[in-house]
Amino acid sequence: MNTTPSQYVTVRSVRWHADHLFELCVARDDVAFVPGDCVALFHRDEAASRPYSIASGVNEDELRFLIRRLPAGTVSADLARRVPGDRIRMSPPFGWFRPGQVGDFASAAFVATGTGIAPFLSYLRSFPAQPPRICLYGVRRQADAVAADWVAQRCPLKLAVSRERVPSAHHGRVTDLLEALPLEPLLHYYLCGLDTMLTEVSDWLTARGVTADRIHRECFFNA
Ligand SMILES: Cc1cc2nc3c(=O)[nH]c(=O)nc-3n(C[C@H](O)[C@H](O)[C@H](O)COP(=O)(O)OP(=O)(O)OC[C@H]3O[C@@H](n4cnc5c(N)ncnc54)[C@H](O)[C@@H]3O)c2cc1C
Fold first, then answer.
1. Out of 3.60.20.10, 1.10.287.3510, 3.40.50.80, 3.30.470.20, which CATH number does the structure's domain 102-221 have?
2. CB 218 within 8 Å of CB 116
């Protein structure tokens, strides 16, 4: 018997940023969450669910998700076909990744690939007065960098675009930019996105003496 409590939320909008990347917005109702939390969103037949990180701020009246539609994806492709008014089954928020919030909001550095920017958007929207020291953000194409301008207005941002040349961005992977990360004894590092990036950045930090308790990771996709 499935005893997991869940509820149904109503779709307000599905906004496309690129042909494979969209923002799903649902009415928040009375859902309480902490930046970094995920919820499980269900396929319309309710046979499958996947976790998605909340990208909106704690003071907003809606929940927003930044979702990459995988061509053969069971749940992401279904969510991409939702329309305003649809009801989606959703689990309560859960999570352990707490960007910017460990150590009583000690100084933070963020590193994201793709939709891995979502929990950092939630943090910046929730705690605008306590921005991170820097955010490194890696995407494949400029159209994927949905939040880059907004983030750049709130903290120092270094953008890497791997599959096309963009004048204001590094052409390559986000891991090419690691020298920009400050190395300080009290700084906490938050990494979110592709597993290979998490491993590479963690190894880079560890080799420079950063202890594991200051490296926080959330894996969205396995390469
Ligand atoms: C804690 C957590 C939070 C997450 N938050 C988000 C989020 O905010 N936004 C978001 O978009 N996703 C997020 N994800 C990923 C999400 O949960 C799903 O795994 C993703 O949407 C794919 O599910 P699906 O049902 O569409 O695809 P599936 O049916 O599970 O997979 C379909 C096919 O796609 C392949 N595939 C898997 N990953 C990739 C990839 N990166 N590129 C190409 N093919 C791939 C699989 O091998 C499979 O063959 C999160 C994952 C975790 C663990």
1. 3.40.50.80
2. yes
